[in-house]
Amino acid sequence: MPSGPTLLIIGVLAGLAVPALADAVRPLMAAAIFVLVFGTFLQIDGAAFRRALRRPLVWLLLPVLAMLVCPLAVAFAARGAGLQAELIVALVLSVCAPPSSGTAAVARMLGFDATIPLAVTLLSMALAPVTVPLIAAGFADLALDPLALATRLALLVGGAGALALLLRRQAAARLVQYSRTIDALVLASLLVFAIATMAGVRTQIETQPIAAATCVGLAFACNLGLQALGALLTPGPLAERLTTGLVLGNRNVGLVWSAMGAAVSPMTALFFAATQFPIYMTPRLIEMLVRRARKEEASP
Question: What mean pLDDT comes out for the span 148-177?
């Protein structure tokens, strides 16, 4: 059976190759996100989560880096590179979004500790109603409703967290027994989300091939650049550094997308769709890097 990261690539390509499948799965996107967050909460050790929150790297440095430093750095870099104004707006809006809800699940899939990415993601989501509207107004001249953002995040995180806490209190032993089943459900939700994000993308690629290629290339460059930045700035073992890279590179653009509503331009929508390719394809690259590093450590 293919590994989890390989299945994610298959999901993206399936949604791209079979538009009808992506369209059919699209209504399940919200449910898939909820299952992602809920399943991750179920698998996190409470004591380890509280220990992570005591680290300044987790409760301060990484959220600020993700929600303020990275968007501003990308904005100034894009302007300095002379990118088209529409692309700069799309790029900044994508990076000012909080880390992807599935990052902790992907980290766990890769064999990494999912505690830190979950903590940083939750803290970043708490900052999002403040930072996202400010950055959107400053660099995209776009007014976003902070209350609407806060409400969406509270329903997602609060609902999933409350249900997970209730189950952990009532059936902690059974959750351990069914940990593989929970992992399978999280992987299934990731696959559903991967397929659903490709709804309409093939048509966009066929009608705007040059713009689509530009967006995909820029999305990969930005994602990999932020992942490399996270890996370089984080102390500690390779797994922890790569986990930080995932947090900085993979963003929940769907949150900003839904908040923008009809204000989303065709170029921005195309770029937002393009950001899904590195999110679902780079875990396979990371898996290969980790395997290679472990082989080199094991060899005499």
Answer: 87
Main-chain phi, psi angles of 76, to 5 degrees: -70, -35
Share of the chain above pLDDT 90, in %: 53
Q: Coil, strand or helix: which one is 99?
A: strand
What is the reported pLDDT for 263? 81
pLDDT exceeds 90 at position 157: no
| Coil vs helix vs strand at 227 | helix
pLDDT for 280 equals: 92
Chain mean pLDDT for the chain: 90
Inter-helix orientation angle 115-140/85-95, to 10°: 150
Q: DSSP letter string over 62-107?
A: HHHIIIIIHHHHHHHHHHHTT--HHHHHHHHHHHTSPBPTTHHHHH
Angstrom distances, CA of residue 38 to CA of 31, 85, 161, 250, 268: 10, 38, 6, 19, 29
Neighbouring-strand partners of residue 99: 251
Q: Does residue 93 contact residue 256 with C-beta atoms inside 8 Å?
A: yes
> pTM (2 decimals)?
0.90
Asked: is 4-286 a CATH 3.90.1150.10 domain? The reply is no
Look at residues 235, 276, 236 and name the one whose alpha carbon lies nearest to residue 94: 276
pLDDT of residue 2: 64
The DSSP result for 278-291, as a single string, is HHHHHHHHHHHHHH
Summarize the chain as % helix, strand, coil (round to 5).
85, 0, 15
- Please choose, from the candidates 203, 183, 185, 194, the residue with its C-alpha nearest in 3D space to the C-alpha of residue 9: 194
Closest CA to 24 of 36, 15, 33: 15
- C-alpha 103/C-alpha 251 separation (Å) is 9
Q: Is the pLDDT of residue 194 over 90?
A: no
Torsion on CA atoms 183, 291, 253, 43, rounded to nearest 10: 30
